[in-house]
Amino acid sequence: MKLLAFLSLLGLVLLGAGTASLPKERKRRDQTLGEGDAYAVLDNYDLGLDNYDEVIDLSDYEGLTDYGDQLPEVKVTSLVPPTRIGSTQSTVTPRKLSSKPKMSRPTMLGLLDSPSSHSLPTCLVCVCLGSSVYCDDTDLENIPPLPKTTTYLYARFNRIRRIRAGDFQGLTKLKRIDLSSNAIFSIDDDALRLLPALQDLILPENQLASLPVLPASIEVLDVRLNRLRSSGIQPEALRALEKLQFLYLADNLLDSIPGPLPPSLRSLHLQNNMIETMQSDAFCDSEEHKHSRRRLEDIRLDGNPINLGLFPSAYFCLPRLPTGRCC
Questions:
Q1: What's the pLDDT score for residue 285?
Q2: Of 39, 179, 251, 255, which is least packed with CB atoms within 10 Å of its CB?
Q3: Residue 220 above 50 pLDDT?
Q4: Are 173 and 147 in contact (CB under 8 A)?
């Protein structure tokens, strides 16, 4: 009993001491808070579960957190003001563009008929490099007007059907004409005869049935894959070509060896024609046995029905026998 009484008395003493120290702690906190501090307002209250609602009014919580009135009002306006003409507003309608623009290939019509220049229009359609003119695969139907300095003309893979007398007029420097793979069926006699420098005339894969009159300067004559007949080669026409070295007449309708041939000839191609026979003097002069053709080393008669073994006297002046069927 004495122990219980002692413990009770000790508890009362400790409780009294704690209550007496509260005013001292409050005074010490008041000294640390500055004037105007937001927490100084709360010093007049002893917070507890019984008086918490008196310090902060929870019923007005929505009012404390509503910041809607403080947000600035933003106005959006158009950057481009409407355009007005007079009193009515103008409306611009965009033009519709085609999804696939039409591409047109330049043609010779109009360009080559221009009277202002004889060289510039052709070089707009063809390719002019120095003294060479390239008109390959440009749908030509006629020989275009050429610059006066043209030396080499290439107009292959076109639709040219005729060569007229004035097509090459004044082209004194023209050395080579290549008209392969056209549809040429006619060449006027004066179209090529007056070209003093012409050396190479290339005309394969056309529709020629006869040869035109050629200048004496010709060295290479290629008329393969045409419709050339023996009657279309004038007598003495080839002999007059004193500089002719290469004569290509394969794949035509010839029924005899053309001649007389010029002494300058080195190569003669007559394969795939209709030749069945030949004269004894087709290559050599039978009366002049000393005559020889040392330059003519390449003669081709293969693809013809002729039997070369039947004409042994026709080859005595040749350095080599012709190529073809012998038996």
A1: 74
A2: 39
A3: yes
A4: no
pLDDT bracket for residue 58 (50, 70, 90): very low
Range with the largest mean pLDDT of 31-40, 97-106, 158-167, 280-289: 158-167
**Cα angle vertex 160, ends 156, 166, to 5°?**
105
Using CA atoms, how far residue 196 sits from 4, 187, 199, in Å, is 154, 17, 9
H/E stretch holding 64? helix 61-65
Long-range Cβ contact pairs of 155-162 (< 8 A, separation 24 or more): 155/179, 155/182, 156/180, 156/181, 156/182, 157/181, 157/182, 158/182, 159/183, 160/184, 161/185, 161/186, 162/186, 162/187, 162/188
Cα 268 to its chain centre, rounded Å, is: 41
Spell out the residues 6+ positions from residue 104 whose beta carbon is closer than 8 angstroms to its own. none
Token digits for 121? 């229009």
Residues 39, 41, 42, 44, CA torsion sign:
positive
Contacts of 110 (CB under 8 A, 6+ apart): none
Structure tokens at 289: 């046995």
Query: With b meaning 16 or more CB within 10 Å and e meaning fewer, what string describes 186-212?
Result: ebeeebbeebeebbebbbbbbebebbb
Q: Which amino acid is at 83?
A: T
- Cα dihedral value 112, 116, 119, 122, nearest 10: -20
Give, in order, the Cα–Cα distances in Å from 209 to each of 152, 230, 254, 272.
25, 9, 10, 16
